[in-house]
Design goal:
Layout lengths: L3 H7 L3 E4 L2 H6 L8 E4 L7 H8 L4 E4 L2 H5 L5 H18 L6 E6 L27 E8 L4 E3 L4 E3 L4 H11 L5 H9 L6 E3 L6 E2 L5 E5 L11 E3 L10 E5 L1
Helix pairs in contact: 3-5
Length: 237
């Protein structure tokens, strides 16, 4: 897997910005579908996670819960960062959530296309929108350049299985079936693909599949979090 520096040097999909204002204002164009405000944050985010004592699964952390934590100076610095980042996004009419993740739900249904967040996928919306995300601690998200991927529904064997499950006719009704179940949003890596790491601390803005988008959506996935893995602290909007 490529690190962020290697990705910036070799990929036309990622652009680094120097401030939150630039992150918000920069237009997606050409091949670029991922913007990264690269940062090194102060504070002890592990202390935040330890104090939350989150159960398995996803625990959404409210501002009130953050403020109620009894923290050292380093933990308080991390808390201030978390509150400030959410404040920046809210000031632009966004609705961020802060999640402490101790394992994601998995798609346990047997089928040709897995649709949980550990599968490379693109986000979608019925109106123009972008996704913002930052991992403060734990395994970071991963990206995949579009030219290194193929939609799973475009793999002949996979499409044949989906057609068999639906009724064999590759028509508009079948296309609607793919969309309804989000099968058309998931991707497989090509043989020579090199995913890249979003890294810790960095605040990303990535393009999604939505009306009027001038670029391809950014393909990404959540990291695998097997039992015993460190918890993630993730900001997403």
């Amino acid at each position: 897997m490529q690190n962020l520096r290697e990705t910036i040097e070799t990929s036309c999909r990622v652009r680094v910005v120097e401030s939150f204002e630039e992150l918000i204002a920069t237009r997606f164009e050409g091949d670029v579908n991922a913007l990264c405000w690269r940062r090194q944050l102060a504070g002890d985010f592990k202390e935040i996670v330890n104090c939350l004592e989150a159960d398995a699964g996803i625990t959404t952390v409210t501002d009130e819960a953050l403020r109620a934590l009894n923290l050292t100076a380093a933990g308080a610095t991390a808390r201030a960062v978390l509150l400030a980042d959410q404040g920046l996004l809210r000031a632009h009419d966004l609705a961020p959530t802060l999640d402490c993740i101790v394992g994601y739900p998995r798609d346990d249904e047997a089928g040709p296309v897995t649709t949980d967040v550990h599968s490379f996928h693109v986000d979608s919306a019925p109106v123009p929108a972008d996704t913002f995300l930052c991992t403060y601690i734990g395994a970071p998200s991963e990206g995949l350049p579009n030219e290194m991927a193929i939609r799973r529904v475009d793999i002949a064997e996979t499409r044949a299985k989906l057609l068999q499950a639906h009724g064999d006719a590759d028509d508009a009704e079948f296309a609607a079936y793919l969309t309804e179940h989000c099968f058309d949003l998931h991707y497989a890596q090509l043989a020579d693909a090199r995913p890249y790491c979003f890294g810790l601390d960095n605040l990303w803005r990535i393009a999604i599949a939505c009306p009027g988008s001038p670029v391809l959506p950014c393909i990404h996935r959540a990291p695998l979090t097997p039992i015993g893995s460190a918890a993630r602290l993730l900001l997403i909007s």
